Amino acid sequence: MKTEMKPEMKTSYQTRENASKVQESGYQTTNFLQSEKKLQEVISRLQAYYSHTITNPQWAVISILCRFVFLRNLIKLLSRTPKLNRYDLHKSLFQEIDVDRVVNYLNKYGCYLGIKLPKIISQEIIMFAMSTDCYGNLDSKCGFLYSQKKQAEKKNKAPFSTATYFNIDIFCPPIKRLSNDPGIKMIAAKYMKTEPIFTDARLWWTFPLNKKNYDVSKTASFFHYDPDDYSCLRFLFYLTDVDLQSGPHICIRGSHIKKRLRKLFL
């Protein structure tokens, strides 16, 4: 029995050794692909930053300085105090909202969950989305109705990772109403400690793709933050059901204040 067991053990060991080599080779290949993908992502971002800087130098200055908490707080101190009595909460779409509670959460955690669109507003926006052209991957030449997505991708000869609507704050009445909502404005005013200025509204689809065609830089599917100004606030609403498998928005609580130095510039 011993004589028979020895070759079996040896064969087994060799098999494991070979398997280990295969796994090691696969791991190295995966690391190489990941490094290449990260490099492409960095290049893509640098190109975008360069383009923004050339067209709007002021943007580059603000995007760097506003990353530091003490500078943001200094700007708040120097800003004009908001006149909160101009916002009539009785006219807000969000009657049950507790403004002070929301602002306290924003200051402490950097995000707040619980502001939900009234059903009639979300339905109106969805109707607008279904009846208006959206543009695949932000390409103005790839406009299509949502119901014609497959035909548009076939014409484009590549799948879309996102589709965006343009000028929605002008052409979509419910979104325009949201941008002027007194409840939304009061939250922004109390959080930023100055008169809020509406900048823009965005409406987009995010589509599932296989790994071969997936580009995280196009869907912003990585941890990042968007410092648009010395002080800014975004309100994000889902218009379709979202779970952990369908592209949820994920935030790291407290990361608006606590950041390592190298993270500030990545």
Describe the overall structure:
By secondary structure, the protein is mainly alpha-helical. It contains 11 helices and 4 strands. It has a 4-stranded antiparallel beta sheet, covered by helices on one side. A hairpin with a 6-residue loop joins strand 1 and strand 2 (143-144). The longest helix has 54 residues, at 2-55. The radius of gyration is 25 Å and the shape is globular. The relative contact order is 0.12. Mean pLDDT is 81; it is low at 1-27.
Top keywords for this entry?
266 residues, four-stranded antiparallel sheet, disordered N terminus
Overall geometry: globular
Q: Which whole number gives the mean pLDDT?
A: 81
Widest sheet, order of strands: 2-1-3-4
Number of helices: 11
Radius of gyration: 25 Å
Please estimate the helix content. 40-55%
Output the helix-strand order.
HHHHHEEHEHHHEHH
Summarize the structure.
The chain has 266 residues and is mostly helical.
Q: Which helices and strands appear, and what pairs or packs with what?
A:
Blueprint: H1 2-55, H2 57-65, H3 69-78, H4 99-109, H5 119-131, E1 134-136, E2 143-144, H6 149-156, E3 162-165, H7 168-171, H8 173-179, H9 182-192, E4 203-206, H10 216-219, H11 261-264
Antiparallel strand pairs: 1-2, 1-3, 3-4
